[in-house]
Amino acid sequence: MKKGAIFDMDGLLFDTETVYRKGWAIIADEFGVDRKPELADACSGTSGELTVRMVHKYHPTVDAEAYIHRVVQYVHDEAAKNLPVMEGAREILQYFHEHGVRIATASSSTVEQIEANLIKSGLRDYFDAVVGGDLVVNGKPAPDIFLLSAERIGVSPADCYVFEDGYNGLRGAAAASCAPVMIPDTLPPTDEMRAICTGIYPSLSAALAAVKQGAL
């Protein structure tokens, strides 16, 4: 078992990726542009300038930063009403905590939003570090957020699991020399993901079982 475990948030700890998808569509209506379902996939796991570029690509005429702000606000408001914890999330965090594994987040959301979600769900005490997209210049798929997360928990990147559901996050984890573990949510595994991932499991419960068996 590795000494560190780094977790994405949306679509991994919490069932919020579907909320983001709905948000990208609803905000398109607000801005008077066509809904582009593929935009949600393009922006999944991204932050900063990369997200801005993606919005510009699909909606060249809109104020990308204002658009993104409204999507984030929509998700924030929805999460305040209902924040479902993903299957196995609490159990795997508890197991790692009991066995001395250092735990961090590496989410493209802001630290403020991550903290709010972790507190609301009762998961905050499991985390030794909370790292968000607002703490790095280059968002996923760059390795920066994973390198910072590993640094904050005092563990070598190579000795850290990274649990992710999104392609960009898994690419970033691989670039950081961590051990990427895919837990698919809205995006299916691809040949690329199979090539770069240490393991692919249908849920965090299944990943935990693999850890206990020494297979992960």
UniProtKB/TrEMBL annotation:
SUPFAM superfamilies: HAD-like (SSF56784). It comes from the Bacteria. CDD domains: HAD_BPGM-like. It holds the Pfam family Hydrolase. This is HAD family phosphatase. It comes from Selenomonas timonae.
